[in-house]
Amino acid sequence: MWIIDVPISAVSWLGRQGTKAVAALVVIGIAMPSIGAVLKPYLVWAVFALLCTAFLRVDLYAVRAYLRRPAVVIAGTAWTSAAIPVLFGLSCVALDLERESPDLFLSLMLQAVSSPMMAAPALASLMGLDATLVLVTLTAGTALVPLTAPFFTGLFAGQILTVSPLALGLKLFVILSGAALVGFTLRRIYGVAFIERHNDKINGFNIIVLFIFVAAIMENVGFRFIATPGKAVALTGLGFGVFFAVLFFTALVFSPAGKSQALALAFMTSQRNLGLMLAATGGEVPELTWLYFALAQFPLYMAPFLLQPLVRVVLEAKPGGKAGGREHSGIQTKTR
C-alpha cells in the first residue's frame, strides 16, 4: 500500500545520504530549537536506541578474524581507554583548569573517559579506512568503559562530578549491556541476510533517531551564539581543537603500523561518544558542560564529510592506490 510504501521509501532514501545527512543534522538542530525542547526528554532513549542498532550490526566473524592478530587492537584499546584520559587529565592539571574553570574541566574529562562513538566503524568505512580494526578496537574499548570511566573520573574529577564514580560505572554498564543484549538478540532472530537486505532502512532509522539526540542537545546553541557569541565561538574552537589534536597525535603514535591502521585508529579515537556520558549522568551536568558537549558535536559530525577527500588522497598514495580497509570492512552502518 502506498501509505506504507512512501514512508519506507523516504526512510531508505534518507539512509543513502551518508555523511551529508549526518552533517546536516547539526544545522537543522540549531535552526529548530523548539523541536529540541520537545525532544529533550527522549535524549537518553535516543542514545540507547542508537547503541542497539550499532550492536545489531556488529560482525562477530570479522571481530574474531582480527583477534587472531591482536597486537594493534590491544595497543589501540589501551590508547583510547587509558592513555587519552591520562593525557587529558594531566594537561588539565598542568593548566590548573580544575580551579580556573571546574565546569570546563569536567567537560573535558567526561569527553576523555567516554568510549568512541558507535558510528565510528561506519564512518570509517565511508572514508575508506580499516573499519574492521575500528570495530574490534571500539568493541574492546566500549566493554572496558564501565571500569575505566569511573576510575579516571574519580582520579581527576571526583570532586566535581555530580554522580559518584561507582554510580557512573554502573549506569554505563546497564546502558551498554542492555543495548548489546537487545542488538545481538535481534541479530540472532532476524539474521545477517535480513539486516543486509534492509541496510538503507536501518540507516534511515538511525538518522531519524540521531536527529532526536542532536536536536535535544542543540536546543539552546543558537540562542547561546546570540547571547554570548564569544563564549560560544571559543567553546566551538576548543571542540575542534581537541578533535584534531587527538586525531593528529593518535595518527603519529600509530604511524609505524601503516597509514591505513594509523588513520583508522586516529579517526576512531577522536570520535568520543559524548551522548553516552550524558545518558550515564542522566543529563545532570553543569550548564557549561552541556553547552560544550553540544558545540563539540560540530567536529564529530562534520569532520567525516570534510576529511573524506583528504583521507582518500593520503591512502591512495600507497602502492596500488587502494584505500586500506574498505574492501574487507564488513561494516555498513552510517550513524552513531
Total helical elements = 18
> How confident overall, as mean pLDDT?
81
- CATH class, named Mainly Alpha
Q: What gap, in angstroms, lies between the N and C termini?
A: 31 Å
Instruction: Catalogue the unreliable spans.
Output: 320-336
| Secondary-structure content class | mainly alpha
Computed over alpha carbons, the radius of gyration is 19 Å
Tell me the β content.
under 5%
What's the SSE pattern?
A: HHHHHHHHHHHHHHHHHH
> What share of residues is helical?
over 70%
What is the approximate shape? globular
Estimate nothing, just give the exact number of structural domains.
Answer: 1
Describe what this molecule looks like in 3D:
- The chain is mainly alpha-helical and 336 residues long.
- The protein has one domain: Up-down Bundle (Na+/H+ antiporter like fold), CATH 1.20.1530.
- Helix content is 78%, strand content 0%.
- The chain is built from 18 helices and no strands.
- The chain has helices at residues 2-15, 19-31, 33-39, 43-56, 60-67, 71-94, 97-100, 102-113, 120-126, 131-157, 165-197, 199-217, 221-227, 229-253, 259-270, 274-280, 287-295, 297-315.
- α4 (43-56) packs across α11 and α10 (131-157) runs antiparallel to α11.
- The two termini are 31 Å apart.
- 50% of the residues are buried.
- The model is unreliable at 320-336 (pLDDT under 50).
